[in-house]
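fwd from M.: "can u put these together and see what the complex looks like"

so here's what she sent:
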Amino acid sequence: MLFRSKSSFVNVSLGTNPINTSKSGYEFLIDFHNRCSLYRDKKVLIDFSGLTWISGNMVALLQAIMYKLIVENKIEWYVEVEVINNKFPFLNSNGFIDPNNNALRSAVQLQSFNPEEDQRFFKYINEHLLGHDALDRVDSELKNNLILHFLEIFTNVEKHARTDYPLFACGQYFPLKKQLHFSLVDLGCGYLDAIRTYTHGKVDTAEKAIFWSLEEGNSTKADAPGGLGLKELRSFCDKNSCRFQIITDGAFWNNYSDKTRTASPFVGSQVNIVFDINKF
Amino acid sequence: MSESIINIKLFLEKDTLILHSDGLKLYEEIQSRTAQGVETIILSFDGVLLATTAFLNACLGKYLTDQSKVALEISDVNETIVQSKIDLVRKNASSKVGGDEHDSRSSSFLDG
């Protein structure tokens, strides 16, 4: 798609700070969202030129932001493919950029899953994430356990998020650190609303909602027992020295500190996991 | 005593059992066959590779907490990881119905 003049685009920078799998990485992307949300019916060029780093898995949040603003603000997104190819070539391989499009400016491909697309999500995890060569030596039983943990997080969106919007998943393997980073983002109702209703107001803050959701047996499902997925994932992460983060309703929690910090508010929730393959 | 076998993989056409909604579908099938007079349902996990607790809670966990009248048997669990999740769901659901409550149903799932 070609345009005659750069002035037809609004240029919004992703900034210069690194976007890692961390609270600060989350905050930089929410800031990007807040700046872009000022525009309606515009063509927005995402400016990667000053960005020093973005973890591939955090593109899940970026894609969620882009999707939301396409629907709500009628924004059309563009990038300079050459800039991305030079600085972050992995954004081609993880589906963020259409690798077949060599235009200088390209409409950005989104990678997302509907909550009922369980088999496609499983295939993505099994083939594209855990199918990485670097994980060949990881025990198959452990891989299956990892897959199950990813799938449990996926099912939480189907059960609880109450949204018709897709969810966004992305992973990245870092061979030098031997770390596997994974992020899953939904644009649903977040944790607090459903838990507050279920507990008749006893759980009334985002912090309390996160801790409530991590306890065994706690679930807002009315049609079946539950409350095992997040608890089991937390146990696995603690046992294997993996980082586990939950961000929802303006609260950021991680398993290392087992505390929450205030975060910039955004719709839905995000789960980040960092697996240290060395520990397996 | 009439019994009926449900091969889960064939019923759902999936060997990786993930969704809460699929668990409910299986539970509804159990209820449907019970309504037709079946007294024992055998759930065959033959060919099932993975099962989430979300799925298992929606069928097995729900069976336990809803005090369904039919007897439930589990068979052909060939993957250790599936068995471990079934055990976890059984324990979680049992804690919700109360440890002291005697369950008069005869069931390999209940006995573990």
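replying to her w this: Chain A touches chain B through 28 residues (CB under 8 Å).
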